[in-house]
Design brief:
The protein is 60% helix and 3% strand. By secondary structure, the chain is mainly α. The protein has a two-stranded antiparallel ribbon. β1 and β2 form a beta hairpin. It is globular and about 35 Å long.
């Protein structure tokens, strides 16, 4: 009987740890791992003063030096459809939470953001 009672707290502890893993993955973005993931970003965000023509003319922000937390939240909002740029929605839907954290770490460490 005592063995069964001890299993419940251990199971609850393991469950709570497993549920918190996605939050730890975001906080642990790896800028080096992002080097193979940012080519899709550079075509727009790497060109100073670049403007898109779809769906409307839109000035693309430079994201180097931007807060990694902000980048992750923005990508999550695009993936969820809460932000409406179709190209960014498509890109964000193809990224895992870890991909987002890695890209955010890369751009957060890559210098001062242009505003």
């Amino acid at each position: 009987m005592r063995n069964k009672i001890m299993r419940i707290p251990v199971a609850l502890l393991l469950l709570s740890l497993s549920l918190s893993l996605p939050a730890h993955a975001q906080a642990g973005g790896n800028a080096d791992a992002a080097k193979g993931k940012v080519s899709m970003c550079m075509g727009c965000h790497g060109i100073p003063m670049y403007k898109t023509a779809f769906p409307l003319v839109y000035s693309v922000p430079m994201i180097g030096g931007q807060s990694p937390d902000y980048i992750v939240k923005a990508l999550q909002a695009y993936r969820a459809g809460d932000r409406s740029h179709p190209t960014m929605q498509g890109i964000a839907r193809g990224l895992s939470d870890q991909d987002m954290a890695d890209v955010a770490a890369y751009y957060g460490a890559s210098g001062k953001a242009d505003k």
